[in-house]
Structure formats: structure tokens, C-alpha cells
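Q: How do we represent a protein-ligand complex in a form that can be generated cell by cell?
A: Start from the inputs.
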Amino acid sequence: MKPSHIEHIGIAVNSLDTSIPYYENVLGLECYAIEEVQDQKVKTAFFKLGDTKIELLEPTDDESPVAKFIAKKGEGMHHIAYAMEDVGSALKEAEQKGLRLIDKEPRQGAEGMKIGFLHPKSTNGVLTEFCGKK
Ligand code: CMX
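Then emit the C-alpha cells for the protein with carboxymethyldethia coenzyme *A bound:
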């Protein structure tokens, strides 16, 4: 397994509406998509930056992992997503190498991507996502 690049960096925010203006008006990035991911109980906003993206995450439910994160730590860096050719086989390989998985199989993420998470307790405190087309 080898990621080709950082697909996106996820940032937990209380509100997309109040957070988007910083990215658009200060950094000069364009919000090219807003999408709700029901499975993850979040609403996302995306900005392209070279090969990578910034993904803002607003919780849509108190039970959302992002709502729990904000309640505990406040807004901020939530996860790093690595671009993988095949998310399912990358997850299997990580498990074989002794890492703790959150998702054993890929799930449906934003932008039609397959996604799977590794537990931050086995990745130096950084919630890690594998992300790809298959
Ligand atoms: N980054 C780093 N550490 C995190 C974390 C994060 N994003 N979220 C939780 N943790 C840490 C907590 O601080 C806690 O550490 P301590 O025990 O030292 O206090 C530990 O992980 C357990 O956290 P918790 O608050 O008890 O929460 P849960 O165990 O219920 O859930 C996690 C944590 C990571 C398993 C859960 O958030 C999860 O399944 N995340 C993956 C899915 C997700 O985040 N989806 C939203 C984004 C979707 C998208 O990009 O589309």
C-alpha cells in the first residue's frame, strides 16, 4: 500500500455558513461543493488546493462523531485522508500490520468516494482516513 497524495484534510466546524467565508474571502479558495453525508451525520464543504482539498465538516446530529469531537476538543483539525488506489485492500493490509480499524470494509463517503477509518489510538493520535474510487 502507498498513498499517492493527501486527498483531503478534514476540519470540524460548528457551522459551514460561518466558516466558509474565511476560506473564500481570506485564503481566496472556492467552495466548489457542499454535500451531506448521511452515513457520517455531517454536512461537508470542499475547497481544492493543488492535488489536495480542505473538507469542512459540520455535524448534522448530536450523535455525529464530529459533534462528539467538537464537544470534547472544540473546532479544529479532525482527520487526514490519504488517497488510496484500493481502500478495501489498504484497510486489510493495515489490519494485518496490527493497526486498529474503525471500518473493516469501505463505506460510502462524500464525492462518491469509498472511505475507511483507522483508529487515532493506533496512528499517533491522528484520525486517519483511506479514500479512493474503489
Ligand atoms: N482525532 C484524534 N483523536 C480523536 C478523534 C480525532 N478526530 N476523535 C476522537 N479522538 C480520541 C478522543 O480524544 C479519545 O481519546 P482519549 O481516550 O485519550 O480521551 C479517543 O479518541 C476516543 O474518543 P471518544 O470521544 O470516546 O469517541 P469515540 O471512541 O466514541 O469515537 C472515533 C472516536 C475516532 C472512533 C469516532 O469519532 C469515529 O468513528 N470516527 C470515524 C468517522 C468520522 O469521524 N466521520 C466523520 C467524518 C466523515 C467524512 O469525512 O465524510
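The helical segments are 16-26, 65-73, 87-96. DSSP finds three helices and eight strands in the chain.
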